[in-house]
Design goal:
By secondary structure, the chain is α+β, with helices and mostly antiparallel strands. It has 3 helices and 10 strands; from the N terminus they run E-H-E-E-E-H-E-H-E-E-E-E-E. Strands 1, 2, 3, 4, 5, 6, 7, 8, 9 and 10 form a 10-stranded mixed beta sheet that branches.
């Protein structure tokens, strides 16, 4: 029994929220299961960027169907000229027919809980301007500096919004230029 909570097994219970699970892999077929078929599921093809796959995957299934995903990848970044590892969050997707139920919040929170065990003090993500308000509601903050990322032809300025969130108490975003020393995730 939880301290201060009555032990009333006859009390009505709220419907159980679907569990976030760690996925062994996340394939193109999984993405299609969530977002449906299409050449640009994340709406970022117009940027012309080359992206890295994620290394850690988290998902939510409803009725056996994968309906939400968030992925993680450890990345090398220079923050204000100082080499600093961060955890990149990407591949966040929620099936259109189940949006508005808090699934993005739940799958990203589970991914961030795992990210906190990986060591770096910051998580980083890139998003389209239309999604900025969603991520800000989830506690993400906009990186105030221009962000450069690697591409096969050399470094470019990231055309999407760059957001960060602390992974540990007291973590703050340092001032100065930001350079991702890899392809974006």
């Amino acid at each position: 029994m939880m301290h201060g909570m009555p032990d009333d097994s006859t009390a009505p219970t709220a419907p159980t929220a679907p569990a976030v699970v760690r996925l062994d892999d996340f394939t193109g077929a999984d993405l299609t299961e969530i977002l449906g078929p299409g050449p640009d599921p994340f709406g970022v093809a117009a940027t012309g960027l080359t992206w890295l796959p994620k290394e850690e995957h988290f998902g939510i299934r409803l009725g056996g169907r994968l309906v939400a995903h968030a992925g993680l990848r450890r990345l090398p970044v220079d923050l204000g000229g100082t080499p600093t590892p961060v955890i990149g969050v990407g591949g966040v997707a929620v099936a259109s027919d189940v949006r508005g139920r808090g699934l993005a919040r739940r799958v990203v929170a589970a991914a961030l809980d795992h990210a906190r065990t990986m060591g770096p003090r910051h998580a980083l993500l890139f998003c389209r301007p239309a999604l900025l308000a969603l991520y800000q509601r989830l506690g993400w903050r906009e990186v105030p500096a221009e962000v450069r990322v690697e591409q096969p032809t050399g470094p470019v300025v990231m055309p999407l919004r760059t957001l960060w969130t602390p992974l540990h108490d007291g973590a703050t975003w340092p001032p100065g230029p930001v350079r991702l020393r890899s392809l974006p995730m």
